[in-house]
Amino acid sequence: MKRIIHTAVLVIALASLVAAQGSQPGTKSTKSLEQELFAMDKRAYDAWNRKDVKFFEGFLAPEFISPGPTATTKQAVIKNMLKPNSCVTKSMEFDDSRLRMLDNTTAILTYRIKQDVTCGGKPEPKAVDIATVFVKRGVKWLSAFHSSSPASD
Q: What is the pTM assigned to this prediction?
C-alpha cells in the first residue's frame, strides 16, 4: 500500500513539473511560440515581395527544401529572388494558424492564406494551405521546409 501511495505522489509531482515547464522564466509556451513563428512566416512573404535576399539568408536553414516540380533549396530560393518576378500581390490574409511540436527543436506550423495574387497575368488560387517546418538552432528558429497547396474547402 505504501508503494502505491509513493508511486501516486511521484506521478503527481512529475505531472506538476511537466505542466510547469511552459510557464517557467526563459521558456515559451506553445501558443507564444506559435505566434512568433507565424509572424516570421508572414515576414517571409513580405520579404519575398520586396526581394529581400538578406532576410532569406538568415531565415532559411542550410538544408531547406520546398517541394514542387523541382525541389527548391535555399540557394535556389535566393537565386530565384534575383530574377524578374511577374507576380502581383494585391492582398493577403493569414488565418487559422496551428503549431505542432515534434520535439523541443522541431515545430510544424500550418495556416491558410486568402489572397488576391496574379502571376504572369493569371490568377493564383484564392486560398492556399501552408505548412512550414521550423528547426531550432541555438536560440534561433529557421525554416527547414515550406509547402503550399490550393486550399480544399
A: 0.78
